[in-house]
Amino acid sequence: MSERPRIVVTREIPEPALEILRAAGEVWVSGADRALAPGELREAVAGASAVVSMLQDRIDGEVADAAGENLRVVANVAVGHDNLDVAGLAAREVLVTNTPGVLTEATADLAFGLLLAVTRRLGEAERLLRDRRPWSFHLGFMLGTGLQDKTLGIVGLGQIGQAMARRARAFGLRIVYSGRSRSDAETALDARYLPFDELLSESDVVSLHCPLTPDTRHLIDAHALAAMKPGAFLVNTTRGPVVDEPALAAALRDGVIAGAALDVFEREPEVDPGLLELDNVVLSPHLGSATVETRTAMAVLAARNVAAVLAGSPALTPVPSP
Ligand code: DGY
Q1: Matching CATH number, 104-283, of 3.40.50.790, 3.10.129.10, 3.40.50.720, 3.60.110.10
Q2: 214 Cβ partners below 8 Å, 6+ apart?
Q3: Each residue of 39-60: pLDDT tens digit?
Q4: Is 286 a catalytic residue?
Q5: Which residue ranges have their beta carbon within 6 Å of ligand 1?
Q6: Which of 60, 108, 117 is nearest to 83 (CA)?
Q7: Whose CA is nearest to atom 6 of ligand 1?
Q8: Which atom of ligand 1 is least distant from the CA of 107?
Q9: pTM of the model
């Protein structure tokens, strides 16, 4: 009888996903309550046929070499895959999969929640009450910014960007978008394509939904921030490095833009100290997909990808190699 394939899972995942993996091979799950350090990761993957990875795991050719010649698939439990060297893995005939689709609605919900939180100053309001500071209702008290007939600029009209646009339309926002190319969804969403620079200068809120690539790293830098309207807001639920955090902190401090809501950070779990000091920024710790239903669906999809590849079938959601 041939040996069962070794499946390495770099952090605990929901039980329904583990059940699928156990049927497909011998499963090892890291018991550490943190991401594995690079050396630990290389050690853990030795002899693996499949790795179920988290978005903090940097998996490149070196890690694949540490796994050895059995390695066939790396299943990332995330739609983003900037943590994986897809080309380096493809060169070693290792397939990469991600989890598109299942986290679209949850992530758009959080992005829109952040948009509301920053435009209506909810973080600031909560802090005021928790600090037991005096307050009384009056017509000028803690005024926010209304959304109706304002313009939302969506950078990247992929699945999550489209889900954001649907929510925004229900709130009376006009939609403009930019991206590498025009989207087929623009008519249905009544979304107007604009070059990135024009989107920055026309939008009252800019929401980032593009993947992190060499082209989008620091897409929002001091120059881009200066091109935004002075009363505008920035929402980031994609990847931290799309925004130059120190430049954003300076822009928020100096009133270059009105506010920002951030779910992702350049050097997670760190947050630029300049941002932590500001009242006009709402922060959440990478919670875009953090619902019970969505996280379970993500892990199950990753597990089904592993099971399919180990059974010799096509992966359900492969990441195309560059
Ligand atoms: C992803 O899937 O890329 C998200 O960032 C995880 O919530």
Answers
A1: 3.40.50.720
A2: none
A3: 999 999 999 999 999 999 999 9
A4: yes
A5: 55, 78-80, 103, 288-289
A6: 60
A7: 78
A8: 7
A9: 0.97
